[in-house]
């Protein structure tokens, strides 16, 4: 075979080879396109899952609602002083100090001790002025008998003072005091706005039969009481004159 025939044969084989490769490339191309069309679907699913800001917003909303209940006086009994939208109130009534007051009580809001006899009681509330404005840093001093009607006159059991926070709020943890001859259940207190007049009085409990026979009892000083899982919860708002 001469060179011319060999060259013609090579050219023919090359043309046939190129013709055979072209369909294979075309057949592969749709497959790649198919893969590419799946990718947007995956991204779309990812975007759908990325709508978690809605869940976050819902969670944030719940947290805010809980915070608002804790920092406002909206949950207070509307019958109490300066609750239920009231804009003014008279000063908390004064009563006798009694014979068992001691100066120098420790600064403590929790008077309850583990193993203490009696029903646990948590009293919450606010100190307001007569225009129902909260009084920050008001001084409150509490003292009382134990569940058996006995006062600790040698120490400071069930005695303590505290100060209101910036919202005028206070909380006292103690026990329900017991009865003793001539007296119904009561908790003694003193309350004073910064540099103001000291109000001395007593808090009482609703539904106690001895209330009617106690000559010191005053219905305007009744705690608002509700049952709780571990005892009782009470509410009271004090109103003080502000100089």
- Topology order in helix (H) and strand (E) letters: HHEEEEEEEEE
Can you tell me the residue ranges where pLDDT is under 50 for at least 5 consecutive residues?
18-71
Give the termini distance in whole angstroms: 128 Å
Overall geometry comes to: globular
CATH architecture verdict of the largest domain: Sandwich
Number of helices: 2
Cα-based radius of gyration, to the nearest Å: 40 Å
CATH class of the largest domain: Mainly Beta
Q: Structural class, from secondary structure content?
A: alpha+beta
β-strand amount: 15-25%
What is the domain total for the residues? 2
Strand segment count: 9
Mean pLDDT: 80
What would your notes on this structure say?
A hairpin with a 2-residue loop joins strand 7 and strand 8. This protein has two helices and nine strands. It has helices at 3-49, 53-71, and strands spanning 120-128, 139-143, 159-163, 169-175, 186-192, 198-204, 224-228, 231-235, 238-239. Strands 1, 4, 7, 8 and 9 form a five-stranded mixed beta sheet that branches. It has a four-stranded antiparallel beta sheet with strand order 3-2-5-6, with no helix packed on it. Helix content is 27%, strand content 21%. The model is unreliable at 18-71 (pLDDT under 50). The protein folds into two domains: 3-50; 77-239, Protocatechuate 3,4-Dioxygenase, subunit A, CATH 2.60.130.10. The longest helix has 47 residues, at 3-49. It has 243 residues and is α+β, with helices and mostly antiparallel strands.
